[in-house]
Amino acid sequence: MAIKPILFNTEMARAILDGRKSCTRRLIKTRRKDACGFYVTRRIDGSFAGIYEYDENESMFDNPLEPPYQPGDILYVRETFAWCPCWDCGMDTEQGACTDHIYHSEKKEYGCYMYRASCEDNEYPSADTWHPSIHMPKEAARIWLKVTDVRVERLQEIDEDGAWNEGFRFTTPCLTRISADGHTCDLDGPCTSPIKYCDMTMGELFGRELWNSTIKKSDLDRYGWNANPWVWVIEFELCEKPKGEN
Asked: Is residue 104 included in any domain, yes or no?
């Protein structure tokens, strides 16, 4: 078992806290300059065994790619955070004002960590007080996860259950009413939306609306939804902070 960090944006951190997210997909990139693609091996029962790179001659390299996380690993979530002074940090957190705010964490010398995913106050901390998740120290982590499964898939293999497990919730902006079956348009007259959301599966909505938003525009041709890249599928569950971790 290893203890490792994992980055989530504010929306996804909130989804984990709400119990709506139990899975994440992370892009698989080649590690060798002469690699042209990937070859996946599977066990007799069809489960994932390994993923290898191959060159332009379709010769497979010996060493499989290692997933970023393994089943059993413990992850601490890095999220957008702030450190703010408290009015009375001499008091015990279980008795003082710190318990009045769900976005307060353990105190650090006359102050508290705060988290954008739980803070509804848009004035304090101020905009320049929030720090990006990449800079969050382990000691500030409040969300701990245990990895339960790791496998590989093509991005477009995601189904409706997979999209829901990703914490993806989407309301099409072009509709004001939905028919009884929840899928077809119930508006009068012809569709005027430039994007035909009704024709998309939940997986495609996830890919175009969420996944593509995480990819640089310059990389969409290589790693966007239409490119259908290989991804690590990492499933997890909430767990307690390991003993001895500060």
From this structure: yes
In the numeric block, which tokens belong to residue 121?
Answer: 């106050």
Pair 207, 156: CB distance under 8 Å: yes
pLDDT at residue 102 greater than cutoff 70? no
Which residue segment(s) compose the domain that 120 sits in? Answer: 81-131
pLDDT band, residue 31 (cuts 50/70/90):
confident
CA dihedral 76, 124, 14, 240 (to 10 degrees): 40
* 220, part of any domain: no
pLDDT at 71 over 90: yes
Does residue 116 contact residue 81 with C-beta atoms inside 8 Å?
yes
**80 and 86 Cβ atoms separated by less than 8 Å:** no
Whether the Cβ atoms of residue 228 and residue 155 lie closer than 8 Å to each other: yes
Extract the tokens encoding 56. 């332009």
Give the pLDDT of residue 192: 66
Domain total in the chain: 1
